[in-house]
Specification:
Layout: H1 13-19, H2 25-28, E1 39-43, E2 47-53, E3 62-67, E4 70-85, E5 88-103, E6 114-118, E7 121-127, H3 130-135
Antiparallel strand pairs: 1-2, 2-7, 3-4, 4-5, 6-7
Length: 144
């Protein structure tokens, strides 16, 4: 009797059982090499707020651009380190980058967009146009 083989999403089950997924994790798990910062998008009566988790990323390494109602947040950072100890030398290179893009609603006043970086969180304020704020005020409507 043959052993029962598991089914996987990426590879046929016999390949998974024969090679074991731990053999070359880089080939089986494409998400292990990159990450995209998490984002919260909040809205109130006066503005939209985009909060991007950016720990360890300095504000000088972040670019925020607005082009054709597309807000793009991107960062590139390259770090190099070198250690010499007697006959041995060790060099390490690290390169990280990300890019996130969002469609900016028509009611945003593009001239008043601002950003701040505090405690590892990048916050972008997208204030609404004055006329849009007046339109969205809350009011109770009485049923006749």
């Amino acid at each position: 009797m043959l052993p029962k083989l598991r089914k996987t999403e990426t590879w046929p089950s016999f390949v998974d059982e024969f090679f074991n997924r731990d053999l070359w994790p880089a080939f089986f798990d494409s998400t292990s090499h990159f990450s995209v910062p998490a984002v919260n998008i909040l809205e109130d009566e006066k503005e939209f707020k985009v909060e991007l988790v950016a720990p360890g990323i300095d504000k000088k390494d972040v670019d925020i651009n607005l082009e054709d109602d597309i807000l793009t947040i991107s960062s590139e950072k390259e770090m190099k380190s070198e250690e010499k100890d007697g006959k041995y030398m060790r060099r390490e290179f690290n390169y990280t980058s990300f890019s996130r893009s969002f469609v900016v609603p028509e009611e945003v006043d593009a001239e008043k967009i601002s950003a701040e970086h505090k405690n590892g969180i990048l916050t972008i304020h997208l204030p609404k146009k004055e006329q849009e704020i007046k339109k969205t005020r809350k009011r109770q409507i009485r049923i006749v």
